[in-house]
Amino acid sequence: MTEQNANQLFSGNVFIFQAFDIGEDVNLEHIKQSHSVMSRPLSLPKYFKNYHTPLPIDLPHPHSSSKCISANIHSFGVISLVYKIPFRDTLENLRKRFNALDSEFQEQGVVDAGSIFKAIHHNIKQPRFFHLRTSYVVIQVDSQPALSTVTLKDTHGGTIVSLLRFETENLSEYQKNEILDSAIGYYRGDLFIIDTQAAFVYDEEYSEILDLFEFANIQQLELQYFDRMLDQQLNVVYQREVRALPLKAYMPFIGSMPKDQIGSLNILKVDISVIIERLKSSIKLAGEEYISELYALLVDRLDIDNWKASIDDKLQIIQDINSVYQAKIDIIREDSLSVLIIVLIFIELVVGVLTYFK
């Protein structure tokens, strides 16, 4: 890169998306009625359904987060925040202060999400702050008519890819080319580079895709949360800490699986399946080729499909465990019924014999 290119000024914004797990379920209607936080009008892009509509709010006062442009509460126990930090600088200077900038707003996110949690925790089922969180960064740069996307990658590609990896030094040519080769664009002057922790957007018309990044970050949070929860529950089974089933579980006509650890796993399986299906159904990309391609790349980089596969595997293990325990109960019940029938026949025989000799 020449000195002239290194000193080239760019304008744009750094968007930091954060999501916090705060509990099981959130009663959004009660929050609206209680006025514990001030709600805001909701505006969703056309590719989102209203199936899982969040509650947009203002940060509780007092606060010092002038860069927070969006705060949403989601009914499945998540707070999501979006920060917008404008800049006008060289990409090299941005790279030098990028890690510090991200760390600053990571800390600010905890403070802001914590203030929301305190205001609404009475409306949360099993509230906790916070069990897990995820973050994603988008570096948006305004396009320049004199700078084509090809020239941008040739002259600033090394700086861009190191920004996306939160590195202060240039990456190897192999890493650089691998990341840049995955870039996509819809119009001639557009460039989108999606990576695992951050994305680079060279476009001024970016507003309609911001919700896509927020949604993908929330989706990753929920999948990681469910995966961790399943690990904890399955460890109980693997370590043989599941208590013996109570006697009444084997009694005919009493019921099926009892409410012990195995029964809880079954309930958890249903809850996870429902929420994952709702998340998957919250976005409709039919006919949106540009958005669809961008979302597919996001899903790939955030490893969302692998998280889903991991959860599906563990849910199948739960199903197998339930089947084994239910089969054990069914066999014992059948044996109990057989013994009961034999006892009744024997009693009837004894009564008949006694009646005969009476």
Describe what this molecule looks like in 3D.
With 358 residues, the protein is of the alpha+beta class. The chain folds into 2 domains: 3-208, no CATH class; 212-357. The chain has 9 helices and 7 strands. It has helices at residues 3-6, 28-34, 91-120, 149-164, 173-180, 207-238, 261-281, 289-301, 304-357; strands spanning 9-21, 55-56, 68-74, 78-90, 133-141, 191-194, 198-202. The protein has a 7-stranded mixed sheet, with helices on both faces. Helix 4 (149-164) crosses helix 5, helix 6 packs parallel to helix 8 and helix 6 crosses helix 9. The longest helix is centred in the last third of the chain and has 54 residues, at 304-357. The radius of gyration is 28 Å and the shape is elongated. It starts with a helix and ends with a helix. 30% of the residues are buried. The model has no long low-confidence stretch (mean pLDDT 83).
Briefly summarize what is shown.
The protein has 358 residues and is of the alpha+beta class.
Quick tags:
seven-stranded mixed beta sheet; 15% strand; alpha+beta; 9 helices; single chain
Topology, element by element:
Elements: H1 3-6, E1 9-21, H2 28-34, E2 55-56, E3 68-74, E4 78-90, H3 91-120, E5 133-141, H4 149-164, H5 173-180, E6 191-194, E7 198-202, H6 207-238, H7 261-281, H8 289-301, H9 304-357
Parallel strand pairs: 5-7
Antiparallel strand pairs: 1-4, 1-5, 2-3, 3-4, 6-7
Could you tell me the radius of gyration in angstroms? 28 Å
Distance between the termini: 114 Å
Query: What percent strand?
Result: 5-15%
Instruction: Specify the biggest β-sheet.
Output: 7 strands, mixed
Give the low-pLDDT segments.
Answer: none
Numbering strands along the chain, what is their spatial order in the largest sheet?
2-3-4-1-5-7-6
Q: What is the number of independent domains?
A: 2
Provide the succession of SSEs. HEHEEEHEHHEEHHHH
Give a count of the beta strands, DSSP E runs of length 2 or more.
7
Class from secondary-structure proportions: alpha+beta
